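Project outcomes to date are best conveyed with an example. Our students and postdoctoral researchers have been running inverse folding experiments weekly, and each run begins with a structure described purely in tokens. The record below, which covers 173 residues, was selected by the lab manager from last quarter's runs and is presented without edits.
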């Protein structure tokens, strides 16, 4: 897969994200849409000749006051000058359970396609799928939840995450 193709895929992902968020600004037209909330995450990382950008939109449906289900997308591009570049694209399904209004438990299954291209022939380029199953708990205040999640499928050799434990901030509008 060429770098141009991956960059084009990333741009298409950004356009889809814009359409989703512009649609979320519309007035709800049915009871279904009044229970749908949009949110997600945005990440930027800069270091010594390193760059990383992530867009991860998601949507949840409130089944009732305690339980919500949802889906998400994830797109990440990372590069380190003269070392490698990487594209990560995937999706997830999640369930949220509010034990009490302030405490939220979560389960999220994520499947990511990882494509890494190294500049040096010392390392082999690779392209693989990485599954993750996160179980988490967080403190919730209105539409924001802050917490910690754990990947029960964590594999140090192939994971795109540095650790099985990951802090999170969820915001849904």
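After processing, the design step wrote out the following sequence:
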């Amino acid at each position: 897969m060429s770098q141009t193709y991956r960059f084009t895929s990333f741009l298409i992902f950004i356009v889809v994200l814009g359409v989703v968020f512009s649609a979320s600004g519309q007035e709800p037209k049915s009871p279904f849409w009044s229970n749908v909330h949009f949110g997600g995450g945005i990440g930027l990382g800069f270091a010594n000749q390193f760059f990383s950008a992530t867009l991860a939109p998601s949507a949840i449906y409130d089944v009732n006051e305690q339980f919500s289900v949802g889906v998400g997308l994830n797109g990440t591009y990372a590069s380190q000058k003269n070392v490698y570049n990487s594209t990560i694209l995937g999706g997830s399904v999640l369930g949220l359970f509010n034990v009490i209004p302030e405490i939220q438990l979560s389960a999220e299954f994520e499947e990511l396609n990882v494509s890494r291209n190294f500049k040096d022939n010392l390392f082999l380029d690779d392209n693989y799928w990485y599954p993750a199953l996160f179980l988490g708990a967080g403190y919730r205040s209105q539409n924001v939840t802050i917490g910690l999640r754990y990947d029960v499928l964590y594999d140090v050799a192939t994971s795109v995450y540095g650790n099985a434990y990951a802090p999170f901030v969820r915001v849904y509008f």
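The beta strands are 36-47, 50-62, 67-80, 84-100, 103-118, 126-141, 144-151, 165-171. The mean pLDDT is 86. The training component of this project remains on track.
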